[in-house]
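Hi support team,

I submitted a single chain yesterday and got back a structure, but I'm not sure I'm reading the token output correctly. Could someone confirm the output below corresponds to the sequence I sent? I've pasted both exactly as they appear in my results page.

Thanks,
R.
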Amino acid sequence: MLSPQVLKRVVTALKPYASCDVADALTRLKHKGGGFLPGIVMHSPQYQEGDAKIVGPAHTVKFRHNADKGFAPQIEGHYIDKTPSDHVLFLAPPANITNAVYGEIMSARLQRLGAVGTVIAGRLRDANEQRQMNWPVFARGVGTTAGGDACFPSEMGVAVELEHTEGGKVFKNTINPGDIIIADANGVVAIPHGLAEKVVEIVPQLVKADQACLKDVLDGRSVTETFKDHRGRLQC
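Hi R., thanks for writing in. Yes, this is the structure output for that exact sequence:
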């Protein structure tokens, strides 16, 4: 885990950048999939558009099927009240439920607690209400039925395993508490906390190179030439 001082510095340094920029840095560092979490998209304050962005450490909550009650840990009280300020609430419900595990009241509470946004590897509800309060929420989909009759919040601050199937292929990701989440209209990227400082070091170089590439292309140069001149010379 990053120290509070380093965490603050990392989050501040990443705020100017897009999720795509961070994914490029993670790809350079040979991190699987550039940290992209497929299937999770912006639902609020707008649906996959606008300038909203969240950057912060993950506060993870793992859900389990109700059939596991009595056999698995269960969080005392409501997990939402235990969310630290300046964190991204990251919810991981069971993959095979259609229930929504997050709604309007939870966002209202997070605003008061000083959290920075919500990411759900599952469904949300009260979509219009989320947008009216301008709260950033990223999720795999929407639903109408609350999660209580299907699953329960079991543990906080633990590693959560995600699965997403697309085109017949299964994508797997692990999110650890304290991993840095950056999410915008392009999607959600998770930076392992052990790579966060390295990402901060190299992402400005990558962005500067891409800006130079774009300028050259707008001036009439070929992509082949400009990529060779700018991306090809990167030392990171």
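A quick pointer for reading it: Strands lie at 41-44, 54-65, 88-92, 117-124, 137-142, 151-156, 160-166, 169-175, 180-184, 187-191. Let us know if anything else looks off.

Best,
Support desk
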